[in-house]
Structures are given as structure tokens and as C-alpha cells.
Amino acid sequence: MTKPNNIGILAIDVYFPKTYVAQEDLEKFDGVSAGKYTVGLGQTNMAFCGDREDIYSLCLNAVNNLMVKYDVDPHSVGRLEVGTETVIDKAKSIKTVLMDLFASSGNTSIDGIDTINACYGGTSALHNAVQWIESTYWDGRNAIVVAGDIAVYEKGPARPTGGAGVVAMLIGPNAPITFDSGLRGVHMENVYDFYKPDMESEYPRVDGKLSISCYLRAIDNCYSRYRSQFEKKFGQPFDLSKVDYAVFHSPYNKLVQKSFGRMLYNDFLKNPTDEKFKTLESYRQLKPEDTYFNSDLEKALLSLTKETYANKVAPSTALAKQLGNTYCGSTYSGLLSLFSEKRDELVGKRVLTFSYGSGLSASAFSFKVDKSIEEIVEKVDLKNRLESRQRVTPEEFTAKLSLREQRHNLKNYTPSDCTSTLFPGSFFLKQVDNVGRRQYDRTYMTSSRSISITRVVAATGLRYVKLL
Ligand code: ACO
Fold it and tell me: What residues are labeled active site?
């Protein structure tokens, strides 16, 4: 086997629920001051699921759509790995459920299972896939990486930072978007900032402020380690000027704005006498722990990065503002937003990527866009799909989350939500039997894509059913 070159993203797609709640409506409903969620958190809308969708159906949709849109031959896949923290079974992996999509092809030789650590599982799965292709175990086939979650919080300040969505990526050699090989700044430690010890609840325990300081500390460490590797590899100094675009894990947009400023702060600490940092001089001697919530420093950094944020970061923020936090999918929804926004302007450009999962695990790494990505942008069709969603009231949103609370861990039930709240052709949860086994069906497919989708439907043995 010849050594694979230019390993990276061959194809990518995202699945998100059809229903969303507007953050401006939520502000009124929650009785908080106008602008708290839309300006204070920087969010626009939040996607959510009722009881017809679970993490299995979301992943089935994401992988199925990827395979249909890009006409992926089921035999060409040798690895499939899922990164998520939405766990509904303590033993059976989501990956095994996704094997239904390959059943009729007879391809059962697909390595990989699920990877779990808060919002970082998708990144770990992606790194695994790349390393598999680089290894002696690689057999010439491509890998699929699935990254995403249903992010829900109990009533309170964290609730507007929920979201839902799953990204699926086809990884292989000779890709248009390639990894900067050998460049990965990693930071991991043991901390209880966000965790899910309660199996009887879908909601996490979260210490919001602690999670923010952990996130920023992880940026400091990952960024400086990435910088050292970059300087070693390319033999030239690294700072933000070497980055054409930056993509961040996005719990909410305001934190992304602050995070980009944080990277500039790291540049300043490395080169404190540089004239362009003169407004930061008074923050030079601060201990790191005195900087995470220092609002004067934040303002100074936001002001210094205003223009570069607009050029280098804002183009990757559309999906995260529209869907909310998709946890494991968040970083890759950022990448997809960037592709959709900048299209072939990205050719020849470097994208620095920061992925964070509470608990905590984080890394900074980078991609280069080597070839045209127009085909990806056309196939994903992000703008039209986002526009075809359905806005519901905060009352309905709250009722759906209450319904999910009742359904959590329940057995022997048929979901009650109307399937007309799902996109045409979507997998949905049909039933959970008395020992917890789940069955799925699909909504009726009305578009012309129904013909090309037939192959995969046949693979799953599922039929289309008319909208209920
Ligand atoms: N207009 C404009 N801005 C406003 C308004 C208003 N009317 N009201 C408040 N704000 C601003 C605040 O000043 C604050 O800004 P700042 O961050 O620049 O200081 C911001 O809105 C948030 O308001 P707070 O009162 O500080 O925070 P709150 O108590 O509402 O909680 C938090 C926010 C901690 C992010 C909460 O939503 C949470 O716990 N989320 C889940 C945890 C999380 O996402 N952590 C991030 C990394 S880990 C992960 O990915 C899960």
C-alpha cells in the first residue's frame, strides 16, 4: 500500500432538527433583560428535539445524508466512529446502531466505536480516524466520523446555551481540506466544570463560571503548544498573523469572541514589547487566574481584535448561533459554516481549530484548504436548509423539554410527537420496547432525492411512512 498523502475531509454534512426557538423570544419568556441571550451570550436561535428524535436518529440522519449526498459506496468505508456525550445506553454504542446503514451492502468490516468526553469526543474520533489512515492498520478505505449531541439544560441560566445537531465527515487521503500533519497542541486535566453523574437525568451538572475559566486556560495551553510545534515545523515565528481563519468550539458566541482575544493575549505575553500591544502593558504581570474574568482586559482584547475577529472568526459562527451548542458537533459546525460562507476564497488558506470538552480535554490543530470546496458547499446547502426550519414558541419548547424529561430512561412506550415536525425523509424513533430496544422509521420523502436515497433505505430495511 502506498503511503497516503493529504489526509483530511473529503466530504461533510450536518443534520439538525427542524424546530428551533428564538433567543429573543426566550429572553421575554424567561423574564431576563432584553439582550441577555442575544447580545450577552451572542446567540440567535436554538435547535431542539421532541420525543421523536434521539441521538441514534440524529446520527442515522447525519450519516445517511452524507452517504446519499456524496454517493458514498458502503464498501468504501473501513472505519466509523462516533463522538458524543448523549448517552442512552451504558454498553451498546451508537456506532453499532449505524451499522444498519451498511447491512444490505454486507460490509460488516468497519472498525471504530464511540468516544466520550463532553464536547471533545468528536475531535478524539477525528484524530483516531486520521491516525488509522496514517497507520499500518489502514487498508485503503475511508473513515466516517460522526460528531454531535442533543444539548439540554435544566431551567436556569444555562438553558439558553443548549442546542442540537450532528456533523458527519468522510475522512481519507487526497482530500480538499487537509490536516497540518504533526501540529496538535493538547491540554488535559481533571476538573469538575461540567459533568453528568445522574443517569436518571438528561441534564448535566454545570459550574458555568468554572467551565469558562477552564476553557480559557485550555486555550492558553493548547495555543502555546501549537505555536511551539508550528515554529519547529516551519522554522518561523508563529502568531495570529499566520492564521487565516480560526474556528472554535462554541458553547455560545460571546465566549468565541473572548477566546480569539485570548489568543491575542498569548501573542502579547510572548512579545510584550511589540508596539501593537501597548494598550495591554498594564496586564502583563497578572497571574492567569486573575485574567479570566477581568472585564477591563476583556474589553481591551475585544477592541484590539474587533477587525480581525470580523475577518477571521465571524465567518465560522453562523451555525453555532443558529443551532446553539451542539457539543461534540460544535467545532465542526464552525468549519462547515466557514466553508459555506467563504467557499473557494479558502483555497490556500490555513484554519486554526480549537476544540474543548469539559472535564477536561482540549486541542488546537489546523487544516489547510488545498482544492475547491464548491461541491461541498452546494451539497450541504446550508442557507436554504436553515431557512426551511420551523420557529416555535418558548412555551412549546419548554413543553418538549418536559416531555423529554418524562421519556428519559422510560421503556415500553411510543413517542407522541407529531412527525410532521421533522424534515422529509428523516429517521425518527418509532418505539421503545419493554426492555429498552429502540425501533426507527422514516418520514415520507417528497423531494426528487427520494430516488437516490432508495439504496440506503433498502440497506436499513426501513420504509418511508407518511407524516403523522
Ligand atoms: N444585554 C447585554 N448583555 C447582557 C445583558 C443584557 N441585557 N444581561 C447580561 N448580559 C451579559 C453579561 O454582562 C455577561 O457578559 P460577560 O460574559 O461579558 O460578562 C453575559 O451576558 C452572561 O451573563 P451572566 O449573568 O454573566 O451569566 P449567566 O449567569 O447568565 O450564565 C453561563 C452564563 C455561565 C454561560 C451559563 O449560560 C452556563 O452555565 N452555560 C453552560 C456552561 C457553558 O456553556 N460553559 C462554556 C464552556 S463548557 C461547554 O461547552 C458546555
Answer: 85, 119, 249
